Amino acid sequence: MSGAEEINFDGLVGLTHNYAGLSEGNLASARNANMTARPREAALQGLAKMQRLRALGLSQGVLPPHERPNIKWLRSLGFTGSDGEVWERAWRTEPTVARAALAASAMWAANAATISPSADCGDGRLHATVANLQTMLHRILEGEQTERTLRRLMPDETRFAVHPALLAHDALSDEGAANHMRMAADAGAPGVEVFVYGRKASETKAGFPARQTLEACQAIARSHTLDASRAVFARQAPEAINAGAFHNDVVAVAHEHVLFHHEEAFADKAALYADIRAKAQGFEPVFVEVPSARVGLDDAVTSYLFNSQLLRLPGAQSLTLIAPSEVRENNKTASVVEEVIAASNAVIGQVEYVEVRESMRNGGGPACLRLRIVMTPQERAAAAGGFFLTDALTAQLESWIKKHYREQLAPDDLGDPALVGETQGALDELTRILPLGADFYPFQQ
Ligand code: SUG
C-alpha cells in the first residue's frame, strides 16, 4: 500500500452563477434558460457537499472561481472604458459574447483537466492536462486560469507535470476528466485509464455536439506517458449524446474495481469490458450495469444517477454513491439504487444524497463539481496546503460567500455594471483566503 489517496477538488461556485442556456445538447441548461438563479445558495450547496465528504472521513480540496465577467477578454474584443463601462457596453451591444463572459461554468471542475496519478505514468510524475473546452464559447475561456490554479496547487515540477490545454480546435476537442475514468486495485496501484470519446476528428458531425475527440484522448495519454498496455479508448454511444449525455460522466462513473454505468453508455460495451479485463492489473473489474428497461436514458439524464460520486469511505467494505437528491425523487432511479445497495455482496453498498440543485439546473451534478486527484503522501505534502479544506477554511469561505454573493440573479440583473466591482472586490478578498496571491486574477494585474 502506497497510502495514496483520491482527493476531490471541488470548484467553488462563482458569484455570477446564472442560467443563460449556453450549452447546446445539455438539456438542463436549455430547459432552465432565463430562470432566476440564486448564486449564494448555489455556492453554499457546493460548500455543504464538500463538508459532507469531509464529515464522512475524506480529504477534500477546493478550487477558486474565475474572474467573471471576463473583462480582459471583452477588452481583447475592442470594448473600452472603465471595467464597469466595458461590461455595460458588451451587455448592451453583444449579448452572445457578454453571456459567455459572465458564465460561472468553471464550477464544474470535472471539466478542468484530465488527471493521471503518478502510479500510471512512465516518468513517475502526476500529470494533469488542462481541458481546452473548445466546443462552447463560454467554456473555452476557462483554460487560462485553470492552468494558473493547477500550477499554484502543484508547483513542484519534479513531482507534477501540468500541461497547458491542447490547441483549441475541433479536431482536438477536450472536456477533461468528465470523459475519463480510472480503475485500479486501490488509489495508489497502477490503474487502467479509460478515455471516452464522442467522435474522431475526421468524422462529420450529426446531432448534439460530441465534445471529445479520440485524437485529444490519445494526445493526453501520450503526454502523460501512460503505458499503452493500460490505456483504453472507448466510444460513447451516439444515442447517449443525443439523449443529453454531453459528457460520459452523465452515463458512467468508475472507482477502484467498479464501473457503474447505463446500458446505453458505450458504443461497444462488450469490447470495452474485454479491454478493461485484459488490461486490469491486480484486480478483477466489476461492471454494474443499469438496464434501459429499468431506467431509460431520459431518466438517467434528468436524474443524473450516474453523475454521482463513487468512493470508498475509510474502512468501508463496499463503495458509497454520493448521488444528487433528484435520484431519490425519481421512482425509477431511487428503486434501482435501493436494489444495487441491497444486493448480496454489493460492491456499491451505501448511498448518500446531496443537494446541489442550483448546479443541477445547469446540468452539473455532484460528479461534475469535482476534479479527482490521486496523490501519494509525498505529493500531498508537496501540494499547496491552502487548497485543502479544513473546518477553519470552510468557515472563512462560508462567511465570504454570505458577505459577497447576491441572493438572486434574474436575467434583468445581469447587465448591471455594479456586478463588476462587486465580483472583483470579492475575488480580491478570496486571494487572501486561498493561497492565490495578489496578482492571481487579471483585474489585479
Ligand atoms: O458544460 N453547463 C455545463 C455543465 C457541465 C457539467 N459537467 C460535467 N458533466 N462534468 C456544460 O454544459 C450551462 C451554462 C448556462 O447555460 O448558463 C453549462 O455550461
Task: Please provide a written account of the structure.
There is one protein chain. By secondary structure, the protein is α/β, with parallel strands linked by helices. It has a single domain, classed as L-arginine/glycine Amidinotransferase, Chain A (5-stranded Propeller). The protein contains 17 helices and 15 strands. The strands form 5 sheets. It has a 3-stranded mixed sheet with strand order 2-1-15. A hairpin with an 8-residue loop joins strand 6 and strand 7. Helix 2 runs antiparallel to helix 16, helix 4 packs across helix 5 and helix 16 runs antiparallel to helix 17. The chain is globular and about 60 Å long. 53% of the residues are buried. The mean pLDDT is 98.
Strand and helix map with partners:
Blueprint: E1 5-11, H1 27-31, H2 39-55, E2 60-63, H3 71-76, H4 83-93, H5 95-102, E3 113-116, E4 126-130, H6 137-140, H7 143-153, E5 160-163, E6 180-183, E7 192-197, H8 214-223, E8 231-235, H9 238-242, E9 252-255, E10 258-262, H10 269-279, E11 286-290, H11 297-303, E12 309-311, E13 319-324, H12 325-329, H13 331-342, E14 348-354, H14 357-360, E15 370-375, H15 377-382, H16 391-404, H17 418-433
Parallel strand pairs: 1-2, 4-5, 7-8, 10-11, 13-14
Antiparallel strand pairs: 1-15, 3-4, 6-7, 9-10, 12-13
The structure holds N~2~-(3-carboxypropanoyl)-L-arginine (SUG).
